[in-house]
Specification:
Layout: H1 3-17, E1 22-26, E2 39-49, H2 56-63, E3 70-73, H3 76-86, E4 91-102, E5 105-114, E6 117-124, H4 128-137, H5 148-163, E7 171-178, E8 185-193, E9 200-206, H6 213-219, E10 228-229, H7 235-247, H8 251-265, E11 266-267, H9 278-294, E12 301-309, E13 315-322, E14 328-335, H10 342-349, H11 359-366, H12 375-380, E15 388-397, E16 400-408, E17 414-421, H13 428-432, H14 445-457, E18 467-473, E19 478-484, E20 492-500, E21 503-515, E22 535-545, E23 548-557, E24 566-578, E25 590-603, E26 611-625, E27 638-652, E28 663-672, H15 689-692, E29 699-712, E30 715-727, E31 741-743, E32 758-760, E33 784-799, E34 802-816, E35 828-839, E36 843-852, E37 864-871
Parallel strand pairs: 1-4, 2-5, 6-8, 9-13, 14-16, 17-19, 31-32
Antiparallel strand pairs: 2-3, 4-5, 7-8, 10-11, 12-13, 15-16, 18-19, 20-21, 21-22, 22-23, 23-24, 24-25, 25-26, 26-27, 27-28, 28-29, 29-30, 30-33, 33-34, 34-35, 35-36, 36-37
Helix pairs in contact: 7-8
Amino acid sequence: MKIKNFIIWFLLVVTAVTTAQGQISLGDDLSEVDYSKPREYEIGGITISGVQYLDNNVLIMLSGLYIGAEITVPGDQISDAIHKLWDQGLFENIRITATKIQDDYIFLDINLKERARLSKFSFSGINKSDADNIRDDIKLVSGDVVTENLIIRSSNFIKKYYTDKGFLDTEVNILQTTDTSKVNHVILDIQIEKKDKVKIYQINIIGIENLTEAQVERAFKSTKEKSVVQPLDYTDTLFISTLEASMGLDMIDVVNNTGQYFSDNMKLRIFKSSKYIEEDFKEDKLNLIKKYNQLGFRDAAVIKDSVYKNPDNTISIDVYIDEGSKYFFRHITWIGNTKYTARQLNSILMIEKGDVYNLDILNTNLSFNPNELDVSSLYLDDGYLFFQVDPVEVLVENDSIDIEMRIYEGKQATVSKVSVKGNTRTNDHVIIRELRTKPGQLFNRSDIIRTTRELAQLRYFNPETINPVPMPNPADGTVDIEYEVEETSADQVELSGGWGYGKVIGTVGVSFNNFSINNIFKKHAWRPVPSGDGQKLSLRLQSYGRGYISYNMSFTEPWLGGKKPNSFTVSYFHSLYSNGFPKDDIGRQSFLLDGLVFSLGKRLTWPDDFFTLVQSVSLQWYKLNNYTSVFSFGTGTGNYNNFAYIVTLARNSIDAPIFPRSGSEISLTLELTPPYSWFNNTNYELLTDTEKYKWVEYHKWYFKAYLYKKIAGNLVAALKFRYGFLGNYNRVIGVTPFERFYLGGDGLSGNNNMDGREIIGFRGYANESLTPQYYEDHNQGATIYSRNTLELRYPVSLNPSATIYALAFLETGNSWSDFESFNPFSLYRAVGFGVRVFLPMFGLLGLDWGYGIDPVPGLPNASGGQFHFSINSSID
C-alpha cells in the first residue's frame, strides 16, 4: 500500500473510532485523495457486506447515507453513520470503505459483523415449575440478537422473580456457547442459584405510642415477621419478672410480662408467609400512616426506615414514626349549596363536632359510600353530573379543625347517547333492554349502578370488568354513557355420577344460556350453537342402566314479545323405571312419569323493582305397573294425575351471581292442586289407596332467604334459611305420598324425582339420612323441614374463567313426618368447610367436608365426617 493512501486510511480510522467501534478505509488505488485538503464528494453508490439476516436497504437508511448525498472527506458524515449503526446494538464491528473515486463521485462499502443470535436457552439449578413460569414471561425468542442489554435484562428479570418470592440473594450467571449447527448462533445456559429464602425476623416500630401491636400487625398486610416457636427460651426471665410483679401485687405487670413473652417467643405465621418485597413494604408503610390518620393523627409520618441483615440470614426492619398530635372535627360549614340545606347535608355526612378527625370517613361520606347514602349520590342521583365538593381545612386551632365544604352544583345533565362496547356474541338488543339509563332522562348514578348489576346477572359478561363510562358534554349539559363489557361463556355441560337406591346414577346435560332460536337456520350463527338472543335451552339425560332412563328439556324466552321483561318457559320431562324385564313379561315392574310445565314470569315495580312474580302450571302423569318397591300405598299398579298451580313471589338484590358480596335472595312459593275431594261427594274412607290418590291433591309451601354481607375486604358472611311444608285438604286422605321432602347429604344422589320428591342437601350427614323413618316404611319422606346455615366465604380467584372461593359453615336443621312430631328446637347440627369452583363450561362445582355433630338414631354411620360433592349449588 502506498504511504499516502495508508495515511489517508489511518486518519479515517482514527476519526471513526473516536465515536464508535468501527473503521473506514480507502482502496489501494485511491491515491488521488489529499487528506490534508478536505474535499467534497457526491456518493455515487453504497454497498453492504458481511450481513446475513438484515435488509441492505434498511441498513443504508439507518446509516443516514444515501446516493446523491454530498460528503466531505475527511468529515463528520462517515463518523455519524458509524455511530448510528452502532446504536442499533446489532453489530460487534463496523467498517466503511471507499471502494472507488471517480471524478467527484465516491463509492462506499459498509462492512458489518453481526452479533450472534439466540439459538435456544435452558435453565439449570431450578425446578421445572419455576423454569416454565420464567420461560413464559422472560420474552426470549430464538433469533434474538444476543446483546449485553439482553443478558442484563434477563438476569434482572430472574432476580426480581425470585426476590418477589423472598429469595433476596439469588445469583444468576448466563453462559454463552457457540451453536455448531447454526452459523453465528449461540446457546444460553442460564444458571440460577436462588439460595435460601430470606425471612423477616423482626419489625421494630420506633416512636409508636398510640397504636397496639395488633393494630400495627394488621396495618402491615404483606410484610410479616417469621414464625417463632421457642416456648422454653427466656422462661427464667419471665419467671423472675412475674415473681417480682406478684410480690408487688402489680397484676397489670404480670399480664403485660406474660403477653410480651408469648409475643416474642410464640409467633405463628399460618396464612401469610414471611418475606420481604420492597413494593409491599412501601405499601404497608402507607397503610400504617393511613391507620394513624383514621385515628385522628393527620400529621403522622414515617421519618426513616432501615432494612438490615442478621447473622442467621434473616433481616430486621426498623421503622421510625412521628405520630404527631391527635385532632378532632369542630365546625363544618357548607358554601355553594342551593339544592339542599346545610342541615340535610350534615345528616348525610354523619360527622359531629368532637368526632375524631378521620379523612377516610369524611371522603367516604362525601363520595361513594358503599353502605349508606353519601353527599355525591344525593346530587348525582338527581342529574347533577357536574357536581363537585371540595373539603378545605380553614382553621387548625390546638387539636381542633374547622372544615369548609365548597360545593359546585352545576346544572342537571341529560343523558344523550347510551352505547355498549365489547359484546362480540350477545346481540345489542339483549343488553339494551337491561339498561336503566335511557336517552332523554336526567343523569342518575343509581341507575348506572343498577344497570351494572343487571348486566352481571345475565351471566354473559365478566362481572368484575363491567365498566360504565360517563362522557360528559359540559357545553350542552348532556352526557353520553358507554358500558364496556367482556364476554364470557354462558353455556354449561353437566357430567356427573351419584349413588342412589343402590346404583350409580350417571347424568349428562347441556345448557345453552345465551341461545337464539331465530338463528337456527343461519349457518354463520352456529358458534358452535346459535346464540346471542339471551334465550335458554337445556337438555338433560340421566340413567343407571337398563332399568332407568330419564330425560328432560326446557326452553326459556326471558322477554316474551321483546318489549317487556316477561319470561316464558316450557319444560317437558320423562322418566321410566323398571326391573329390566321386557314389556310383555308377566314379572315386569315399571314406573312411568311424564310431565309438562308452563311458566310465566314478570318483573314487578312494587314494592320495588327487585321483585318478580312467577306463575306456573304443572301437569304430571304417573303410571305404575306392579311397582311396590318405593311407594307404601296401593297395589303398585295404577294411574295417578298431579295437576298443580305454582306461584312464586321473589326478591333478588344480590350484586353478583357467582360470588355475591351484598344483597339478598328471598322467595315464597305456593304450590297447590285443585281440592278434588271438596267437590266429588266421595267417601274416601271406602276407597283403596290406588283410588284415593288417583287425583293427587295437596298444598305445598316453600320459603327461602339468603342474605349476604361483606365483613372485611372480600370476606363475606352468608346467612341462608330454607323451610318447607306439605299439607292436605282432607284429613281422611291425609298428606299425599307424592311431593315429599328428603333431607341430608349432597342434594344430588337419588335425585331422580320419581315421585316429585325434593332432595335437600345437608352437609355432615349421609344422603337422605335425616328423613323420618329413613329407608323404613319404604322411605316415605317428610312433610316439614327446616335448614339454617351460616357461611363465611373468601374468594381465591374472581377470574370469570375460573372463579374459586373457600368457605366454612355451621348448619342446623331437621325434617318431620307430620305436625304431631314437629319440634322446631330439635335440630341436627353440622360444621365444616369447603370450596366452590365456577367453570363457565360446567357451572358451579363444590366439594365440602362436613362433620355431623348429632348421631342419627338407628344409623351409626350417618353422621360424623362426610365428604360431599355438589353441582350448580345442589347443596344450597
